[in-house]
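dude i think i finally got it to work??
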Amino acid sequence: MERIYLDHAATSPVHPKVIQVLTETMQNHYGNPSSIHYFGRDARQVVDQAREFIAKSIHANFDEIIFTSGGTEADNLALIGVARGMADKGKHIITTAVEHHAVLHTCEFLEKEGFEVTYLPVDETGRISVEELKKALRDDTILVSIMFANNEVGTLQPIREVGELLTNHQAVFHTDAVQAYGLADIDVQDLHIDLLSVSSHKINGPKGVGFLYVRDGVRLIPTVHGGEQERKRRAGTENVASIAAFAKAVEISQKTKPEKYAFYHKLKQLLIETLKKEGVEFSINGTLEQSLPHVVNLSFPGTNVEAMLVNLDLEGIAASSGSACTAGSVDPSHVLRAMFGSQSDRLTNSIRFSFGINNTEDQILQAAAIISKIVKRLTKQ
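look at this
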């Protein structure tokens, strides 16, 4: 049985060239970047080269990149660091109801510290209203965190409009770009983004490394204390090998972005059209027009998400009910709840499929046939 991996939004396989850089760096550049001897300077050069390349990928400056352990730490550092750093200017934060839990749970933590958080609603496509954001803005708003694209349904947010809205406001603008980076065009200058979170393992890099972009001049209080690494903003010896491998993954993703975007979009259309031909009843959660090309979330009336996932796995298909961070939970998706309400059947019958570098058109056709067979069997029952 061929196993077909359609859960790349949860994590992606590490690219062979990235693995090569990872192992070579472990073998040849093992010094501590903070050491002043040759081995330390050698490791520092590896980190600096990676930082320079990654900064250019989003049109940022070298010193504006902070390496972290991944997207979750980057989100935490952005929100907690800025909230504490700007607390003298206000204690109001704005985010959305469909953010990743790395943002939502951090906002809940900040509420316990005395900050007030406004959670913007979304429409049935998963997008916020810029007008609603404008109404929610206050003189004491210090931080606005709007994800670039949703990890469960793929919906792109109006990032440019948000950035423009905040240009004359004291609030700094953070976006979780973990799912979008590598496929969406991101220019932090053009989009007026002040902070941006990224994770390596979503773009065929190693797990356990990511970065936070922090615009020069943004006040940020460190959340990890120790040494003076990352210009005193994030203590801890840098993960040199993973950082080098991350940079290689970025290099590959940047070079192949146009062709990957077109190919993933084609796979999404192929899956949808094949399911229609098979006579399967389903609805798309989100929007095809304003979404990432590699993520599609489908509602199958008359089915149950747990039964669907188990049956798909037995047939060799790896998919998800949404965020991988809650994959072990049967709790309904907070994203779908925000989009359709707590009583909607979509909360219990929706599956996310997400595509990546190893997928082929033949795999999608095969997967669609299996999905059709399972849905028809479950709906008959």
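The chain is about 40% helix and 15% strand.
im so relieved honestly
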